[in-house]
Design brief:
- It comes from Gossypium arboreum.
- The protein is of the alpha+beta class and 402 residues long.
- It has a domain at 138-316: Rossmann fold, CATH 3.40.50.
- The protein is 22% helix and 33% strand.
- A 5-stranded antiparallel β-sheet has the order 1-4-5-6-7, with no helix packed on it. A 5-stranded mixed β-sheet has the order 8-12-11-10-9, with helices on one face. The protein has a 5-stranded parallel β-sheet with strand order 14-19-13-20-21, sandwiched between helices.
- Helix 6 crosses helix 7.
- The longest helix has 20 residues, at 273-292.
- The two termini are 25 Å apart.
- The relative contact order is 0.14.
- It binds guanosine-5'-diphosphate and adenosine-5'-diphosphate (ADP).
- The site of adenosine-5'-diphosphate (ADP) has 13 residues, from helix 2 and helix 6.
Amino acid sequence: MGEAPAFFVDNLQNGFSTGFGLKSKGFETFTDVGDKTFVIGGANCDSASSVGIQIYDKSTGKWVIPTVLGTKPKTCKGHSAILLNEDRIMISIRGSTPDDCIWFLEVDTEYVKEQKKDFGTEVVAWSKGVTGEAEKPVVISGPSGVGKGTLINMLMKEFPSMFGFSVSHTTRAPRGMEKNGVHYHFTERNVMENDIKHGKFLEFASVHGNLYGTSIEAIEAVADSGKRCILDIDVQGARSVRANYLDAVFIFICPPSMRELEERLRARGTETEEQILKRLRNAEAEIEQGKSSGIFDYILYNDNLEECYENLMELLGLGGSAPINQKPSSKVIDPPSNHSVSKINNKMVINCETKEVGNEAKNLIILDVLSLKGGAPGRTRGLNIHAIDLFSDGLNGIHELS
Ligand SMILES: Nc1nc2c(ncn2[C@@H]2O[C@H](COP(=O)(O)OP(=O)(O)O)[C@@H](O)[C@H]2O)c(=O)[nH]1
Ligand SMILES: Nc1ncnc2c1ncn2[C@@H]1O[C@H](COP(=O)(O)OP(=O)(O)O)[C@@H](O)[C@H]1O
């Protein structure tokens, strides 16, 4: 049993001295991780970007402003913070909406370590907690014209509430039927490059002369809907996603032959002759890498479409008597304004107090740390939460909330 070294500061006056020589704006928390103190908050009700992060490095005596990845919570009513597993800080937000109250600031996870190397700066990454038990994302790669889009469409059509498509950004021009925001976010190169520089992309690659990339927001949007995320990305992208520790199933789709691939590309009729030739030239290298790089968990041959689709369903656990249109729950608890958080073994205990006139209640919300899955980049899934009402039920009154 033990308390993590974090504490909660609330209702501070402007200009409060934190003891670090930092001027507090109120609502900060201070969490020690090794030699560093993470100061989270500095809420300003007028500001949309209300949750700031600063790091005090005790070994150098210096303040550092880190690169912040992922979508952050918005709050101006305060929060509590507690260290979890020495690599992330759990934040519970006061007075937030029920689906927005538990967040994680990753400070030393494998993903963050990798990003620190890339950015050459201190990096932290936000990840919202969701109760949804949505399974691992599915990464699908393969050469142009092999049938990735066709297979993904079949899957989304048959299981519309189970899968959500990660809408990539691209600098290529839209094809006739393609809709902005549905098939791709069509974008200008300079805008996309700027967003990449600011850490908004999980991965990106230059493919057939255009820039393509998966934004962290695209993954988060699917996770928020409680669905299983499908990514249609090239082999370079799949490699980056693996390196970025996104816990996913990686599937490579192979054509029966190069000749068949060429026929499909020509029959699709969406590319110029020059573009078709470029795609075919790239296909050989992609197939080579797809088969030998060790990135992919499964290789599927798309010869007969129906058979390939059956195989895809099988390896996604949807073969035979698969549950149709099963949608995971996305319910999350709502800690009231007054609460504090502590850690006991593998449980986080949120101690809530409600003080209304004539109605004073106290209850505990218990969060099982071992059930947490995923994390940045994307959401932290599997918030397994129980509430204990100390007044009416006594300590044995456990309500399952997820
Ligand atoms: N790395 C990466 N590749 C992507 C992304 N979105 C699409 N791609 C890949 O870019 C390639 C070209 O896609 P597209 O222009 O739609 O043509 P298609 O493959 O012929 O349908 C395909 O290999 C896609 O898998 C992305 O976000 N990241
Ligand atoms: N197994 C298959 N047999 C014949 N044609 C196929 C098969 N799978 C897909 N196609 C066709 O091949 C073309 C390319 O498929 P598409 O899904 O656009 O490929 P990708 O998304 O991998 O570029 C489409 O016209 C599609 O209808």
